[in-house]
Amino acid sequence: MSQPTMKVDVDKCTGCYACFLACRDEYTGNDYLPLSAAQPPASQSWMRVEEIERGTFPKLKVSYIPIMCQQCEDAPCIEASTDGAVYRRDDGIVIIDPEKAKGQKAIVDSCPYGVIFWNAEKALAQKCTFCAHLLEAGGEPRCIEACPVAAIQLAGDRLDEGEKLHPEFGLDPAVKYAGLPKNFVTGEVVIKSEDGEECAANVTVVLKSDTEEHSTVTDIFGDFEFDGLTELAGRILIIHHDGHAPIEIPLAGETSIDLGLIELGFGL
Ligand code: SF4
Ligand code: SF4
Q1: If phi over 0 gives left and psi between -120 and 50 gives alpha, with beta otherwise, what is residue 76?
Q2: What is the pLDDT of residues 221-263, one digit of tens each?
Q3: Least packed by Cβ within 10 Å: which of 79, 145, 179, 208?
Q4: Which class would CATH give 5-178?
Q5: What distance in angstroms lies between residue 206's CA and the mean position of ligand 2's atoms?
Q6: Ligand 2 in contact with 49 (CB < 6 A)?
């Protein structure tokens, strides 16, 4: 049987929170037994939107990552439950049984993605069900229906392609992402002249490591950028400067960097 899963395109997400609100609207005060018991008002986020900032002002980038149950293949929530309180359906969707899970707080702590919540009043662990009750009726999850830019889409079967959120957890999630934020390096190349400084357009900038080499040219403002980098340490930025030896800047650190103004000398 095919496993319904989701594709999330972070580049499309505007952080409008419509998915989060739709999820709240669907589950607050509404039981869908035996799949889910009602959420308490305003204390759970089965769908949350995480805001990630990279770089420093004025070269600051903000991304929004919608995060719901990742439907892990190696699901620790299933392992942590007793009496089959968390189980995988034939279609692959991981469900917390609202009756059997009563009193099993260990289920909440088992999820490294932090998408299981404790309902203190019902003494119950709760999470996203992929809106299984709507899928069964031929519909689609409320978050998908609510998203104005189609940043979340239903995929008909478990996807092999796409990025995994926190692959270091090693849980083989069925939800796949595109555009998860990575590190970038940016800067502005200027030419020193007797009258001061001016933007250096069309200057070739190369980013090199032992295994890769990327190249770009500065825009009319002298700006350049390399994004999508997992590691900065061990890379060298090289600015080619006609008539002079190239300027080499070794990079270090684990976060995005704005190198600021990089001055080329006279004689271009
Ligand atoms: S994301 Fe968390 S709740 Fe969902 S299957 Fe994985 S471990 Fe379980
Ligand atoms: S509804 Fe769509 S655009 Fe808005 S926060 Fe959710 S995923 Fe992002």
Answers
A1: alpha
A2: 999 999 999 889 999 999 998 877 799 999 998 899 999 999 9
A3: 79
A4: alpha beta
A5: 35
A6: yes
Report H helices in the chain. Answer: 18-27, 76-80, 106-109, 132-136, 142-146
Q: Hey, where are the domains in the chain?
A: 5-178, 183-264
- Best CA proximity match to 212, nearest among 185, 187, 182, 235: 235
Task: For the chain, give the mean pLDDT.
Answer: 94
SS3 state at 11? coil
**Hey, which bits of 3-160 come out as E strands?**
5-9, 48-56, 59-67, 86-88, 94-96, 117-119, 124-126, 152-155
Question: Strand, coil or helix: what is 260?
Answer: strand
Count CA atoms closer than 13 A to 206's CA, side-chain side.
11
pLDDT the model gives residue 244: 74
Pocket test for ligand 1, best of 46, 67, 72 (most atoms within 8 A of CB): 72
Burial 103-117 (b: 16+ CB within 10 A, else e): ebeebbebbebebbb
| 194 neighbors 25 (Cβ within 8 angstroms) | no
Residues 6+ apart with CB under 8 A from 24: 39, 42, 45
Q: Nearest bound ligand to CA 77?
A: 1
The terminus-to-terminus CA distance of the chain in angstroms comes to 65
Q: What's the CATH architecture for 183-264?
A: Sandwich (2.60)
